[in-house]
Amino acid sequence: MSVWWVGRRDDLLAQLTVLLVYFGADPLEDPGTGELARTAAALAGEYRTSDRGEGIRHAATLLQEVAAELCAADRFRGTLLPVVNRHLRCAVALLVRARAGLGTAAGPGGGGGPRTGAAG
Description:
This protein is mainly alpha-helical. 67% of the residues lie in helices and 0% in strands. Helix 1 packs parallel to helix 2 (33-48), helix 1 (2-22) runs parallel beside helix 4 (81-101) and helix 2 runs antiparallel to helix 3 (54-75).
């Protein structure tokens, strides 16, 4: 049973990595929950300070919730895999919601995700 949970956790971490890249994160190779939490929190800070509209600020709120879910998952790392996976699934769902809310922010043709304008 634990092999299934480990595989599911690894799949969710890979999903989270891809979703965070959409929001502007650098691609991470084999990230852990703590590293993803820090990445989500940093992105939330960038989005929160953006002047690109309410949609971006709403995404910042969701990214901060993602960071909280990932921090919770990190606290249980390696001990309670079903609980870890629950937090990871919640984080994926939040990122999907944030991405859907920004679906038009990237403009026609996509572009790999919204840019906050912080780096210019």
